[in-house]
Amino acid sequence: MSDLEVRQLRYFVAVAEELHFGRAAERLGMAQPPLSRAIRELEHHLGVELLHRTTRHVCLTPAGESLLRDARTALDAVASAERRARHTGQAVPTLRVALKADYDAGLLPRMLTAFQLDPASIPVELLLGGRGEQAPALREGRADIALLVLPVDERGLDVEPLLTEPRLVALAANDPLAARTGLTLADLAGRVLPDGSPAESGGRPDTQYRPDPDRPRFDLPQIFSLIEVGSIVWFAPCSLATRHTRPGIAYREVAGLAPWTLAVAWPQDSRSPAVAAFARAAGSVAADALESVGATR
User: Among residues of the chain, what percentage have pLDDT more than 90?
Assistant: First the structure.
């Protein structure tokens, strides 16, 4: 046997994650005996034991734990390469831009217009996702460039900050705190954010954010409805608060609340002229916006 094969890694990862040959075989859509043989052949090829097996139990050896980490990375890289190759080979290429809806400081239309004026521009496909999903989309080959909020896991990415602006707290207009012109984080004690975290924490940065699978995920209209009835409060960048005024919601400044920074990001190994053109357009539009509103970069 020569080098490791993708098939072998897929087989091993399935067994290592299930820790049960029967479940792994079912997951892979194959019979158990050939799967068991494939794992034994892999161990023979590597010259190490990857799994401790008993009649009732399967567990990873230290060598197995090491291979599992690297195999996941390798399989992710293969899947990303497949996605990028298919996308690049399309008859009509497109630029896939990942972003969270309304998290563009209101600048996306102007960015798209500026991009379309560049000789390197191509048709744009917008990929809307949830909080924290943009960087993984870039690394996994599902997007070519992204607008995202800092901080972010920058592994494998080039990240260019565009603009920084204050965040405000959005709360029910009849909330007693709405009668005050300025608040502190301590004033928000007892109130919760849409993800269930305490408002006085100031919100969790995207690099640490892990949505609770037991809590529903809300879109913007749902968030506004929950704010109006006093169920939650929410931290919104000034640009979003300006675009979404509602009589049942009050926006107030909060001392000590970290600002909001919009950035553009793309894979470090990208050589796409369209990606470079969009990054230039985003930077130019953001610079003009900073001059016009006096925001800080």
Answer: 57
CATH superfamily ID and name for 167-255? Periplasmic binding protein-like II (3.40.190.10)
DSSP symbols for 11-24: HHHHHHHHS-HHHH
Mean of per-residue pLDDT scores for the chain: 88
HSE-CB of 87 using CA atoms within 13 angstroms:
18
**Within 13 Å of residue 186, how many CA atoms lie on the same side as its CB?**
0
- State the pairing for strand pair 182-184/249-255: parallel
The 10s digit of each residue's pLDDT in 43-54 is 988 989 999 888
Which CATH number applies to 95-159+261-293? 3.40.190.10
3-state secondary structure of 98: strand
Class (C level, CATH) for 6-88? mainly alpha
Q: How many CB atoms lie within 10 A of CB 271?
A: 7
Across the 297 residues of the chain, what is the mean pLDDT of every consecutive 10-residue run? 76 90 90 90 90 86 91 81 71 88 93 95 93 90 94 93 95 95 93 91 61 68 94 93 93 94 94 95 94 57
Cβ atoms < 10 Å from Cβ of 52: 11
